[in-house]
Amino acid sequence: MEAHGHQSREHLLPITQLLPGETLSLGRYRFIFKVLSPLTLPVYSGGVLRGIWGNALRQITCITGKSECSGCMYGPECVYTRVFEPHTLPRLGEGLMSMKNIPVPYLVEPPPWGSTDYQVGEELVIDMVIMGKALQDLPVIILAWQRALLQGVGHQRDGKAELIAVSLELPSQSVERNHPDFARPQLTIPDIQVKERVALNFRTPLRIEQDKVPLWEKHLTAPLLVTSILRRISLILNAHMNLDLKVDLRAIIAAAGELEQQKKMVWKEWERYSARQQRAMTIGGVSGRWELRGNLDLLVGYLYLGQWLHAGKETSFGMGLYTLEGVDS
Asked: Residue 84 pLDDT > 70, yes or no?
């Protein structure tokens, strides 16, 4: 992604022309569980669910029993390392040589905020976006989810659930596990018709930082939002799909700066315990509606794709999930 140089606005291209005819290897999978014993989740469960799934994935795949993956000779062949801790592997390309953390090829999307108590027989639904080469490990990823909830969740690990269904959630339909396309999702960015207004409805907190300080609603701007989404798209395409998105970032940010905006958002915080740092951490962001008005022709494709890849920080926990309103494809 180009961060310098100048192009006149009429020579800037939307993402559908930067990736002509390209289908992206990513999909949103829905895991449906039947609760076997009373189950209690925190008010925001992205951290807990990602944690128990990661632990189960490691149990299934690790052959050394070591406590740390960094430097492991089996790293490139290990499903856990490739999927859960890709930053411990060698750099994946020239565009990533300066990056300390390669983005993970998944996002855990937990139940809605405040969905905490589940009784026996109820359904628990967890979504997960999986992308790139991680799709080759889909059977193991599914097995890890199955094991994670059977082993239990909660302080006493007494809340348990049984995996009863998995489906691929496409924009137009659900694909069941026995369908030939189930393990080979392909997302194509359509030709999108938009008037002069779109709204991003953030279902999970959006965390955008400046100088490592999270920004509240009044400090968030359209250029900051677009930069967050665009950088994330570019890095994921490079790291996990071997695609180089050549974008004049400054010109795109300038286009975003011309938009009018209206926000109705609230700050939300949740707490997670980091086993690695041995401490509790409070993570916050803003949820709600963010409306953009103006010439959106160059930007709407990126906003569309961001519905799968999320925006901002801490996306592996499901943060920055939004749906886009006001477009037709």
From this structure: yes
Q: Rounded to whole angstroms, what are the CA distances from 186 to 33, 92, 171, 244, 258?
A: 25, 22, 11, 18, 33
Pairing relation of β-strands 193-206 and 322-328? Answer: antiparallel
- Residue 256 structure tokens: 């975003």
Nearest to 236 by CA among 130, 104, 85: 104
Which pLDDT belongs to residue 113? 95
Chain centre distance of CA 196 = 27
Q: Cα–Cα distances in Å, from 18 out to 13, 29, 240?
A: 6, 27, 18
Q: How far apart are CA 305 and CA 198, in angstroms?
A: 14
Binned at pLDDT 50, 70 and 90, residue 85 comes out as: confident
d(CA 322, CA 306): 8
Q: What is the pTM of this model?
A: 0.89
Q: Are residues 142 and 196 in the same domain?
A: no
- Element (DSSP H or E) covering residue 261: strand 260-274
Q: What is the DSSP letter of 6?
A: -
Instruction: Name the one residue in this structure whose structure tokens are 């006493």.
Output: 156
SS3 category, 265: strand
308 CB contacts (<8 Å, ≥6 apart)?
26, 28, 129, 187
What's the domain range around 287? 9-23+189-328
Contact 289, 264 (CB under 8 A): yes
Q: Are residues 246 and 124 in the same domain?
A: no
CA 86 to CA 108: how far, in whole Å?
A: 16
Residue 10: pLDDT over 70: no
Helix 222-241 / helix 249-257 crossing angle, nearest 10 deg = 150
Cα angle: 6, vertex 7, 10; to 5 degrees: 160
Please identify, among 123, 154, 176, the residue that sits at the C-terminal boundary of a domain. Answer: 176
Least confident segment among 73-82, 225-234, 235-244, 271-280: 271-280
Q: Two tokens at 20?
A: 């002509």
What the block records as the tokens of 285 is 């962001």
